[in-house]
Amino acid sequence: MLRAHEREILDGGTLVLLGDVYDQYIEYRHLVPKSGPRLVGLLAEWADAGAEVVYVVGNRDPWHETFFADDIGVTLVRGAWESRRDGRALYIAHGDGHGRPASLADRLSHRLRPLLRAPFITRLYRMGLPGDTGFGLARQFARRFGTDGEPDPAAHRALAEAACERLEGTDADLVAFGHSHREALQTTPHGTYLNPGYWFGARTFARIDADGPALYRWRSGAAEPLPAARPLAATSSL
To answer: What pTM did the predictor assign?
Structure first.
């Protein structure tokens, strides 16, 4: 799918990875996860060619250090990436820190988020646990409290509400979140909410160009357009 859009990216486009690119990501001082080497190689190739690649970390892959930024050339974002393209103000974030946590996994993640993303805690974790043990413990935690990739309806509703609030209360024209693993393209009187969905399960992704945002499903080597959903209410009371 990325190779099919290579010319557009290299001719001035931007690739945005919206978090949870890895199921778990723990970067040690001299070790990085071996998952996805071909993807990493492609990102490095594009960065070397001058393309803009933005990686917004998610709740499953927040423990990045210097590898992607310094060795690969990717812009690593630990929050929201804000930009202006084709006259639109974009607010793009993974979404785990937005909305009212409804599920057990989201409530737990919301409570632990400041602690787990504190630099001291990440250093302590890496120093106290060798590579395989550290990854194994993280995977067990994710299996116990996570959704195993299944779309989370409660998180989906919470993110849609948070998007409505941000569109209404800021100058953003488009808000994009991931996290819920469910695609969305919905309009409000104040702008658009976009969620590219779950690539690993549903093979969905999104594009934003001069014509506006659009959702697609990658099927049989081609991009199949997906319909937009019904408009959202102007306020957060959905």
So the answer is: 0.86
